[in-house]
UniProtKB/TrEMBL annotation:
Gene from which the chain derives: MSBP2
Family: Belongs to the cytochrome b5 family. MAPR subfamily.
Region (Disordered): 1-56
Pfam families: Cyt-b5 (PF00173)
GO cellular component terms, A-Z: endomembrane system; membrane
Basic residues compositional bias, start-end: 39-48
Organism: Colletotrichum orbiculare (strain 104-T / ATCC 96160 / CBS 514.97 / LARS 414 / MAFF 240422)
Name the record gives this protein: Membrane steroid-binding protein 2
Superkingdom of source: Eukaryota
Biological classification of the source: Eukaryota, Fungi, Dikarya, Ascomycota, Pezizomycotina
Length: 277
């Protein structure tokens, strides 16, 4: 009797479970059971472990190598552009002023102040020293062109000197001096009595004064041309000035106009002759 009662209760329990599970005994029961099972959340500890593994694998040397490679390529490209295709590695000639070491040395050390005797030591005869020349008391470093200003060069006569007068007259050896007195004479016409008689005395005086002003302006322009040439060349550096004793000009005898400059003078043209020419 007791066994029958237990069997009935068990049978009811199984029937109740089967009613609750309509998919019992079918393949869908397994899939439904799989869906019903809650998914397991990944633990934070496991996630941190993977992050730690990733951080352990990172190396800053890769980024450093990338930066260095970029800088090297940029340097080569910039060198190629500045040198107009001459070099990728900054080994080109005639570097611009901002790439010259001597330029920055002069900027930091300040301008040189040399006496004429000290300037003479930089005439190119000593290969350990730069080549200097001066014009209108301004010293320029012309070491960038030793073929011209160094020993044996066509303009080596100017090295170590302030040859302002020679730059204008063209007499390189005779006029290696900054004394410009009388240079305007090379631009004045020669006096000729046969020609001068076409003007009255007052007219001639006014004409001569006008010619003198024009001649002095030509001397000024000629000297300025050479100062600007060296200052703006891009090859040569302005490094200082020549210091002379006070009153040096009055203590020296005025140079005569050199033969070459004298031979370049022409006679004054008579009125109306300019129109014919």
């Amino acid at each position: 009797m007791a066994d029958d009662t237990v069997r009935q209760r068990k049978s009811k329990k199984d029937t109740s479970e089967d009613e609750d599970n309509l998919f019992a005994g079918t393949p869908a029961e397994h899939s439904r059971g799989a869906v019903a099972q809650p998914t397991k959340k990944k633990s934070k500890k496991s996630k941190r472990s993977k992050d730690d593994d990733y951080s352990d694998e990172y190396s800053p040397w890769v980024d450093i190598l990338r930066v260095l490679s970029f800088l090297a390529l940029a340097s080569c490209a910039l060198s190629y552009l500045i040198s107009n295709g001459e070099s990728f590695f900054w080994g080109f000639q005639d570097k611009p002023w901002y790439l010259k070491v001597d330029y920055w040395k002069a900027k930091f050390n300040g301008p040189l102040v040399l006496t004429p005797e000290q300037l003479l030591q930089y005439d190119g005869s000593d290969p350990e020293k730069p080549i200097y020349l001066a014009i209108n008391h301004t010293i320029f470093d012309v070491s960038a062109n030793p073929r011209i200003y160094g020993p044996g060069g066509s303009y080596n006569v100017f090295a170590g000197h302030d040859a302002s007068r020679g730059f204008v007259t063209g007499c390189f050896l005779d006029d290696r001096t900054p004394d410009m007195r009388g240079v305007e004479e090379m631009f004045l016409p020669l006096d000729d009595p046969e020609v001068d008689r076409h003007w009255t005395f007052d007219e001639m005086r006014a004409l001569q004064q006008e010619e003198l002003e024009v001649a002095r302006q030509k001397v000024h322009d000629g000297l300025k041309h050479w100062v600007d040439f060296f200052r703006k060349s891009g090859k040569y550096l302005e490094v200082g000035r020549v210091k002379r004793e006070d009153g040096w000009l009055e203590k020296t005898k005025q140079p005569k106009l050199c033969q070459r400059a004298q031979e370049g003078r022409v006679r004054r043209k008579v009125p109306g002759e300019e129109k014919k020419n």
